Amino acid sequence: MRMAIQGERIRVLNDVEPRGDGDYVLYLLQQANRAQFNPALEFAIEEANRLNLPVVACFGLLDGASGFPEANARHYAFLLQGLADAKAGLETRGIGFVMRKASPAKVAIDLSADAALLVLDRGYLAIQKGWYREITAAVTTRIVQVEGDVVVPVETASTKHEYAARTLRPKLNRLWDPFIAELTPRKLKRKAEGLKLETEIDVSDPEAVLAGMSLDRVVGPVKRFTGGETQARKRLNAFLKDGFAGYGAGRNMPEAAASHMSPYLHFGQISPVEIALAVREAKIGDDDDHSAYLEELIVRRELAMNHVFYTEGYDDYDRAVPDWARKTLAEHAEDARPHTYAEDQLAAGETHDLYWNAAMREMRETGYMHNQLRMYWGKKILDWSPSPKEAFARTLRLNNRYFLDGRDPNSFTNVAWVFGLHDRPWQTRKVFGTVRYQSENSLKKFDAKAYVKAVEALCAAEADG
């Protein structure tokens, strides 16, 4: 029996009847870049079947000065690989796909002229909220937004900015079971084959599309990760088969297995609900492994969604960092720093700290760094920068430039955590005040020398292709 999409995921943005002379139901594929386990897409199919119409999915690609802020060739390569995979999956299901060089809002507005109904998926960043406002102001037909990239919709989980994981966790624990449910693919009654659709970009060859774009190519694509929902599922299945057992005890150890789902979640190439179901159904691992993974996937990730949704200026030091933390950091801003580095020295990994340099190299050359190292990495930038405000800006710039999953709610939240967000005051120290400090002793929790060797091997593989 086909399970209904939870009502809490559905928001009507323009409450009018669908246009009677529409040629199709339009879906703006913007956050959820996948053809399977996508509630917005399945909702569009349900509505199209009810109206006896085909479905058209669309995507707006921005580059150059108008492109997505801070996105470079590394990010666009992964995005385009995912879109090529999604296009193939959509067409297999009989869904049309239109991709144009324009903002997502403009593409949706233009194609809505012939649509009976517009369906949006949902993201929480300021730029995405701006697109939705622009669309709602311009489109006169019915608009329905369907959440598909968190387990529990943000406003359902909490109606306010949460203080810490400990305040959001019990709310999510009470709510998440009904949302961790299978999503059966709907069969489309009318195919889009007969529609004459103008598309400017054929993403079937993502390398050719990338080559024709105007963007920052200094930070290039990585070979360690290939984009797309097919690759995401392969990685997840391999992790659950070979690396999941022991996750609870080993998740803070870089040498332990990791699922590497964060880039795929960031680009909407896999659903967190699909991951949660797979983890729950995994035959290996114990209760600690399962609960530890769901803590990271749901509680920590959705705490980040809560932060960016309820915080105006989540990328601004003065608004993202709590008052108590800014106050104590200001009081210690003039403290002597044993080491200070320019931003280009940090980016090049040219510090006195061998292990920090290795983490920076992994990030710079492969687009990834283990969470345990990310915390140490960020705290040291605060320690080595001329002021806390400059440290915040540097951390965010480096994060967003090199990480595949940079520019994500998790990224903005994790950077602010370095400076005291979602934390409490600790013992007073120089430079940090009462903001949590992380010393080199934290590296004793794992084999740091083995980590350096592993990074060398990963970077050599990148160079060799």
From TrEMBL:
List cofactor names only: (6R)-5,10-methylene-5,6,7,8-tetrahydrofolate; FAD
Q: Which residues form a coiled coil?
A: none
Q: Which GO terms describe its molecular function?
A: deoxyribodipyrimidine photo-lyase activity; DNA binding
Q: What is this protein called?
A: Deoxyribodipyrimidine photo-lyase
- Does this entry carry the keyword Transmembrane? no
Q: Which keywords describe this protein according to UniProt?
A: DNA damage, DNA repair, DNA-binding, FAD, Flavoprotein, Lyase
Q: Record keywords: Lyase included? A: yes
Q: Which GO terms describe its biological process?
A: photoreactive repair
Give the catalytic activity: cyclobutadipyrimidine (in DNA) = 2 pyrimidine residues (in DNA)
- Organism, by scientific name, is Methylobacterium tardum
**Domain Photolyase/cryptochrome alpha/beta spans what residues?**
23-154
